[in-house]
Fold this sequence. Notes:
Blueprint: H1 23-37, E1 39-47, H2 54-67, E2 72-76, H3 84-87, E3 96-97, E4 102-103, E5 105-107, E6 111-115, H4 131-143, E7 150-156, H5 163-171, E8 177-182, H6 186-202, E9 206-217, E10 224-225, H7 232-240, E11 244-250, H8 252-260, H9 264-267, H10 272-280, H11 282-289
Parallel strand pairs: 1-7, 1-8, 2-6, 2-7, 8-9, 9-11
Antiparallel strand pairs: 3-4, 5-6, 9-10
Helix pairs in contact: 4-5, 6-7
Amino acid sequence: MSDTNPCKGCEKKDTCDGSCESLEQMLEQMALAEQLAKIRHKILVLSGKGGVGKSTVAANLAVSLSLAGKKVGLLDVDIHGPSIPKLLKLEGEKLLSDGEKILPVSIGNNLKVMSVGFMLGGESDAVIWRGPMKYSLIKQFISQVEWGDLDYLIVDSPPGTGDEPLTVAQLIEDADGAVLVTTPQDLSTADVRRSIGFCRKLGLPVLGVIENMSGFVCPHCGKHTDIFKSGGGEKMAEEMGVPFLGRIPIDPTIAESGDSGRPYVYHFANTEAAKAFEEAIEPLLALTRR
Length: 290
């Protein structure tokens, strides 16, 4: 006869009526709560569609906060297309353990990074997982990684409103909110509207919208050209009743710095785009000042 008791991990499994959580589940919840209690602010970075520079924005927001003296964790939950290791020149890094928890990869004293990219054997390795496996890994990345005491945990989610952002929103119940990344075109802003709807259905505050690739300033003559239009993200934010955090102009060095793994806001701090990133984090820094 098979064991049909759903609480076989419970200490009272012989008499349990199946209504309690298993001991293992309770311990997992305790570990998760203990970990999250050490992190002051938790922020998701979302986008409605791919190709808008969401991971670039997430990485540079995290670096900007760390340069402001904050202790920051950057969690990459894009299981199928992890970009953070490439953007921060951490490819080839391997995960270590202190015997109890997984150690994130550190950059300096203020930035810790975790990504499924650190678990892959090579650039061509593909992760072919369904929802439950992704849920388990993301939960492990939050509860079983030695993040320590953080001012901010920035979570880079894949595009859309699927398993990964839903899992993070459910696991981090006290998240401060989400930063949404869009480009100015209507095709992108339409998808971000859905992301705002996603946040509202889950009770996740929208901290603001960043309009990426918003115009191009010629480095030689200073002329401004709206290659992909401009202002679409701001207009959409106004219509949806959410804050607008600013425009990041197109700068070829952003792509170059991403490919070379050099954080843009650190290596090109005096550019217009870097200053736009600095302005975008002001509302996030204001969370600490409350």
